[in-house]
Amino acid sequence: MSVGVKKRHPALKHGGYSATGLLPGEDRAAFEKLDRDLQAELCPQGPFEEDTVADIARWMWRKKNLNTFRIAEAARKHHSAIQSEMIPSTMPPNPLEYLRDDWAPPTAAELEAATEAAEARAREELGQSYKFVEMGDLATPAQMLAELDIEERLDARIDKLFKRLAMLKTFKSLSSAKSLPSTELPRISGPKKAA
Questions:
Q1: Pairwise CA distance, residues 1 & 4, whole Å
Q2: How many domains does the chain fold into?
């Protein structure tokens, strides 16, 4: 039986972790160095270019650190195994045991005590990897692809708006050029006709 974790990691409350960003156990200093190196190489100017270079840094980082997903999956499996071993089931393994007079489901207090003991053991055995248990399914390739899909949709919308802005600026510059007062050039007299 799987019991949900009641406490959430602090970074999850404000969205600090995502499958496309820095995950627990990853080297923040190395990520920041990658970002600085890309900023220096690509020399973005303005918020639009800076955002694009930041996206490049995130995706390059995720590509280099795909193994973090394997660590997260192993941590979740180990946590699940501890829970299965330590938390009594509210259902008998054999449905016919319901008919036995001596079978009784565990009490709420027994379930709570077993859950707390399982969580304590999981925290001890998993160490830093326990953060992946707290994250739930956020650190999975499926979640990364879902985030990528959302980001691609948002980027497509931004691109469309950027094109609209460029078009509006072009129209504006054309209409302002037409509305400038025309200055008449002085007429130059041509050659005189011979009589």
A1: 10
A2: 1
Nearest to 40 by CA among 57, 27, 59, 28: 57
**What CA–CA distances, in Å, run from 140 to 19, 126, 128, 136, 143?**
6, 18, 17, 9, 5
SS (H, E, C) 147-188: HHHHHHHHHHHHHHHHHHHHHHHHHHHHHHHHCCCCCCCCCC
CA distance linking residue 65 with residue 58, whole number of Å: 10
**Contact, 139 vs 72, CB < 8 A?**
yes
For residue 36, being part of any structural domain is answered with no
Does 19 fall in a domain?
Answer: yes
Q: Please indicate, yes or no, if residue 120 is contained in any of the structural domains.
A: yes
Residue 16 burial (CB count, 10 A): 11
Domain region containing 144? 10-26+65-88+104-165
* 89-117 pLDDT, tens digit each: 777 667 676 666 777 778 889 999 999 99
Instruction: Confirm if 148 and 127 have CB atoms less than 8 A apart.
Output: no
Task: Using 50 as the pLDDT threshold, list the residues of the chain that sit under it.
Answer: 1-15
Cβ(159)–Cβ(38) below 8 Å? no
The gap between the terminal CA atoms of the chain, to the nearest Å, is 116
Which pTM value belongs to this model? 0.64
Q: Please check whether residue 49 lies inside any domain of the structure.
A: no
pLDDT of residue 174: 84
